[in-house]
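>> received
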Amino acid sequence: MASRHPGPSQSGRTERPSPWLRLLPGISPKRRGFVLAWWGFTVTFGGMRLLTWLIHIDVAGVGDMEAGGVHLHHYVWGILMLMVVGAAGLVERSARARAWMGLAYGVGLALVIDEAALLISLEDVYWDTEGGLSIAIAIAVIAVAGSVLALTRGRRASRTDRDDDA
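>> returned
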């Protein structure tokens, strides 16, 4: 089991402990990515709803993102994030990488789910009644994932679960 304190590694570099160890003490490395995905999803969903509401009410300095006159919906950025996380997950398995990938996964998923109603209807229904479907899906994801995390929180990290590269 590796030390959790900075020190020279086999390559001679000084390794820093993962910031997630301080933020989430006692959470096994295998579980940490799931917790961060849930947090990332929840915070990003709320943040995007706030940002889009500020755009909707025409707050000065806040506006849509466009490229060549075409509005870029935030699900585009979410899909790109999910693609990067998926590719990284195929090659990287360290505890630190799993934590960062979990956070990025939650953020990317929230960006996509927040516009699920648009993707289903293929019309911009974000502020219409039909747009409530995105909110319902997001609340269900937050509730189910949070419940699973809460119900399974008693599991202690085994020796094989401990940070080997924190």
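>> The first helix runs from residue 19 to 23.
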